[in-house]
Amino acid sequence: RCAEEEARWAEEEARWAEDDARREAEAAGAPLPEESFPEVAPSEQDEIEAEVAEILREAGVEDPEAPGEPETDGRDPAPETPGALDTHGGEPAPETSGAEDSGVTERSADGDAGR
Fold it and tell me: Is residue 72 part of a domain?
């Protein structure tokens, strides 16, 4: 039983070492191994893209890569609410040092609340 557990730990540590080596290689800008990306012939790629475009059209989704169309997530934009971000009635925010408006009470070195 102990030998089985040690074998599992050894396998796990080997996987960790492999993962660490892969991360270090990626961080150093090394290309990923070829098996990560199966080879697709250009004609197959075109065929796949055509199928995806057809599926999107049938689903009523516009092609996000179509030229000349603005990029959106497909949802209607939020209605403009006048003053939604305006918290000062159209006036610029008053200049403050921060402590007065923050609710923070300054304390003196001996710990008494400031006046």
Answer: no
**For residues 66-90, b (16+ Cβ closer than 10 Å) or e, as one string?**
eeeeeeeeeeeeeeeeeeeeeeeee
pTM summary value: 0.26
- Report percent pLDDT > 90 for the chain: 6
Model confidence at 25, pLDDT cuts 50, 70, 90, reads confident
Distance CA 62, CA 13 (A): 47
- Please report whether residue 45 resides in a domain: no
Task: Give Cα separations from 54 to 31, 42, 92 (angstroms).
Answer: 33, 18, 51
3 within some domain: yes
Domain that holds residue 22: 1-30
Give the chain's domain count.
Answer: 1
